[in-house]
């Protein structure tokens, strides 16, 4: 396939580029820094520094949209909230417009979203049909998804991925969590009863590949393993994979003081089930947390 891709230099994007390259797909990568992307991803791909260089997407079989400012990392000032929104909404809107302008549009458009769509849900499991709690993370994802789904037509099927916490080597959320655990100082957040909906990086990249070739797949899919866990078990599983204790809890008040409103993403959590993803025929290689962490931390 001839694939147009955004967000390729991110943690997920790099692994997806590797997988798609191994399958001999032709990639055109949209990036603000072509020299950095070339050194990171390789010179065998085509690169564009501006989507505005294209008038249509007639030459592409599919579009994969992973672009977005990291939602966790900087405190949510009003300015940072706007950056989070703009980095997702603007790129997605431009891609949808280009698809609509095409005489021979791509057959598929796969666009990222996040389980933040659901907002806080307590201990109630949610799937792709569940109602959301209206807060900032939901508002970001709702508009992000709306802009992508506007590209749906009889010629282009749209798949939206609500991605959970991505676990993999040398990056992503896990890399930020590991230092205290390696020192024997890790543990759950608060009482550890809130949900952690996660996915192994290999399952996420293979899910995207699955949606590329599954012609009847369209709409929203949860990109989360079928067995979410509470944070206490998640912390204990990290400790077990590292052969370290995981007994020292992080006080919720400390996180809220350090991170402000953004702490709610970590403190509240969700138990998200991939109901439509499983129904599409996708099989998870890592459905359970302990083998998933072992594959990353013991390899």
Task: Tell me about this structure.
The mean pLDDT is 93. The strands form 3 sheets. Strands 3-2-1-4-5-6-10 form a 7-stranded parallel sheet, with helices on both faces. It is of the alpha/beta class. It is built from 11 helices and 11 strands. The chain starts with a strand and ends with a helix. The longest helix is centred in the N-terminal third of the chain and has 23 residues, at 78-100. Helix 1 (11-22) links the parallel strand 1 (2-6) and strand 2 (26-30). It has helices at 11-22, 34-41, 78-100, 136-149, 172-182, 201-213, 231-242, 252-259, 264-268, 275-279, 289-297, and strands spanning 2-6, 26-30, 46-48, 62-65, 108-114, 157-163, 165-167, 195-196, 198-200, 219-223, 229-230. Helix content is 40%, strand content 15%. It is globular, with a radius of gyration of 19 Å.
Which descriptors would you attach to this protein?
single chain, 299 residues, alpha/beta, seven-stranded parallel sheet, two-stranded parallel sheet, 11 helices
